[in-house]
Amino acid sequence: MTKMQPNHIKIRLAQPQDRNQIFDIRRDAIQILCSRDYSPEQIQALLNDAELEQSQRAGIKDIVFVAEIGEKIVGFSAYSRYWVNALYVHPQYVRQGIGTELLKTIESEACSQNIKTLAVCASITGKPFYEASGYQEFSKAYITSSSGIYIPLIRMQKWLSSPTEREQVPSDGLTVICRFLQWVLTGK
Q1: Which pLDDT band holds residue 29 (cuts at 50, 70, 90)?
Q2: Residue 131 pLDDT exceeds 90
Q3: Could you give the angle at the alpha carbon of 63 between the alpha carbons of 159 and 164, nearest 5°?
Q4: Mean predicted lDDT score pLDDT of the chain
Q5: What is the 3-state secondary structure (H, E, C) of the chain?
Q6: Residue 1 has pLDDT above 90, yes or no
Q7: Is 112 exposed, middle or buried (0-12, 13-18, 19+ CB in 10 A)?
Q8: What is the pTM of this model?
Q9: Residues paired with residue 86 on neighbouring β-strands, in sequence order
Q10: Is the pLDDT of residue 174 over 60?
Q11: Which is more confident, 128 or 6?
Q12: How far is 6 from 26, CA to CA, in rounded Å?
């Protein structure tokens, strides 16, 4: 799958040779973009746990997309079944629609698999992006790094339904949480 987007952004499936560039983008995005929302200790803990996270997820089949401008990878996204597992854009390329195009690609892929809802554990930094993309917060969350550092996150979800179905989804928080729990338990 390869899609050309505005401003010559090309979205394609990641290849094994993209791995180092993907790790570099993740590192740079965390170090630079998250620094206003997380302490230096939290940033370092996230970076130190990146390798651990990758090895723990080795058996999980993420679908990973990269965004390119020319031949340069400038962002990537990953998802598995109902979850957006990663979405990072290199700090030099933020606010150019790259993250939005990567997220739309994930959502389109999910819809093609008849998935009706996507969820994400967003960083504090990423929350406004996901809200602007139609995701709703349903709970606070946190992870504790291997070094014991507490890192707050926000659980969010988006209904990927037709306009008619979307109009029928109540917007109150309790209903959203109940529907999410139903989805977790039944997959529907």
Answers
A1: very high
A2: yes
A3: 20
A4: 82
A5: CEEEEHHHEEEEECCHHHHHHHHHHHHHHHHHHHHHCCCHHHHHHHHHHHHHHHHHCCCCCCEEEEEEECCEEEEEEEEECCEEEEEEECHHHCCCCHHHHHHHHHHHHHHHCCCCEEEEEEECCCHHHHHHCCCEEEEEEEEECCCCCEEEEEEEEEECCCHHHHHHCCCCHHHHHHHHHHHHHHCC
A6: no
A7: exposed
A8: 0.79
A9: 78
A10: no
A11: 128
A12: 23
Which residues sit opposite 89 in a β-bridge? 75
The first and second tokens of residue 37, run together, are 């929302």
How confident is residue 137, by pLDDT bands cut at 50, 70 and 90? very high
What CA dihedral angle connects 90, 93, 96 and 101, to 10 degrees?
-30
Count CB neighbours of 110 within 10 A.
21
- In the block, which residue shows the tokens 């995005």? 29
Selection from 145, 151, 126, 149 nearest residue 52 by Cα: 145
Q: Which of 154, 156, 149, 153 is nearest to 43 (CA)?
A: 149
